[in-house]
Amino acid sequence: MSLRLSTVILPYLRWHEGGRAAWQRAEQLGFHTAFTYDHLSWRTFRDGPWFGAVPTLTAAAAATDRLRLGTLVTSPNFRHPVTLAKELISLDDISNGRITLGIGAGGNGFDATTLLKSGQEPWTPRERADRFGEFVPLLDRLLTEDSVSSDGDFYSAHEARNIPGCVQRPRLPFAVAATGPRGMKLAARHGQAWVTTGDPKLYETGTPEQSVQAIHGQVEKLAAACAAVGRDVSELDKILLTGFTPDRGRPLESLDAFVDFAGRHAELGFTDIVIHWPIPDSDFAAGEKVFERIAMEAPAQLA
């Protein structure tokens, strides 16, 4: 299978001042999927415009025809599976079955603290993993069953109705972001795809070669998790979200640089490479002409 190229459009643009145009241009350029981040606010963008993921994707669905759309990623940090399921079913309907849910355990940024009471501590990594382990199976049920009741340690549902369900059957696909063993198990059991950004420990001081080795190790762990549940790892798409490896923005400096970067990761079994839509004066700054050339020409070179 040819390597697919997708993009992630951060939701910082007003819809009528560049937002709509970006999503429509992503479709024109031939990207397989255009994702957006599902955060309340994020890093250096915290003090500027930042819009909600679900309304943004709804607008993008109405403004495009073929482009797949999705979150990268949604987390339990501020989502509940019952309300999220209702929004996803609606979004899948509006888009006529073009939605992928990227989903992860969440981190310790602003999403993890915005809803806390004064003096309350954010969840530890273990607590996030515990919640994620309950969140994903319940969301799976909510998107595939007409009526769901469940009493969990963290999330409950009482006769939650989700008729008519998703356009995509049995439900819209999950792309599970995971690097640890518990997340890998969830990807193996419930995912149609697996997502990684690489090894965060290598971002500051690692080398591209070390990063490739670390990601290779992650792929092997995913294969082991799939084998443990009797699933062939080849059934899962494998998605690399770029920009967080030691290469940083270098793959977007030229078409040749990107083809070399993407090719090395395709050899590890990746099916999808996701690049950030250029944002001037940010960590995601990139030349627009080079970016568009990569979008239009790289997939053929990586076929």
Q: What does this entry look like structurally?
A:
This protein has 303 residues and is α/β, with parallel strands linked by helices. The protein has 8 helices and 10 strands. The strands form 2 sheets. The chain has an 8-stranded parallel β-barrel with strand order 1-2-3-4-7-8-9-10, surrounded by 7 helices. 40% of the residues are buried. The mean pLDDT is 97.
Count of DSSP-assigned helices: 8
Largest sheet: 8 strands, parallel, barrel
Describe the oligomeric state of these chains in a short phrase. single chain
Compute the separation of the termini in Å.
8 Å
Topology as H/E string?
EHEHEHEHEEEHEHEHEH
Q: Could you list the spans in which at least 5 consecutive residues all have pLDDT below 50? A: none
- Would you report the number of β strands? 10
Strand order of the largest sheet: 1-2-3-4-7-8-9-10
Structural class of the helix and strand makeup?
Answer: alpha/beta
Percent in helix? 25-40%
Give the radius of gyration. 19 Å
The general outline is globular
The percentage of residues in β strands lies in 15-25%
Average pLDDT rating: 97
Task: Chart the SSEs and their pairings.
Blueprint: E1 4-8, H1 19-28, E2 33-36, H2 53-63, E3 68-74, H3 81-94, E4 99-103, H4 125-144, E5 147-151, E6 156-161, E7 174-177, H5 181-190, E8 193-196, H6 208-228, E9 237-241, H7 255-266, E10 272-276, H8 288-301
Parallel strand pairs: 1-2, 1-10, 2-3, 3-4, 4-7, 7-8, 8-9, 9-10
Antiparallel strand pairs: 5-6
